[in-house]
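hiii, so i know i said id send this last week but things got crazy w the move. better late than never?? heres the sequnce for the chain we talked about at the cafe, plus the structure i predicted for it. fair warning i was half asleep when i ran it
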Amino acid sequence: MKFCWSTLKVKNLEESLKFYHEIVGLKTNKRFNAGPGREIVFLGDGETKIELICDEEVKEVSYGEHISLGFEVDCIDEKINFIKEKGIEIHSGPFQPNPNTKFFYVLDPNGLKIQFVENK
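okay and structure toks below
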């Protein structure tokens, strides 16, 4: 079995696309209308894929506090500086549970926790 993608319902597609393009670094793979008032965008390639669904009938989304998406970065300190330059608040961290791993969280425009992790 192979994992395909994570699906996220979003309130504002353009705001979410800006975040996942600029902050996470994912590129748009496919974008299409999926019926009246519904648009779908697939981001990423290879093993990292996210599906964003924007439905004009959905006014609020809720992911829960115990769900996050993790993305590996080369240098956690550089990513923290980049995040701060973009005016995005650090949700929590950085944490270093062992000498080889360091990470922190931000929130995407819909309140989903996004984890950036450096594996040394």
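btw The chain has two helices and eight strands. thought thatd interest u
miss u guys!!
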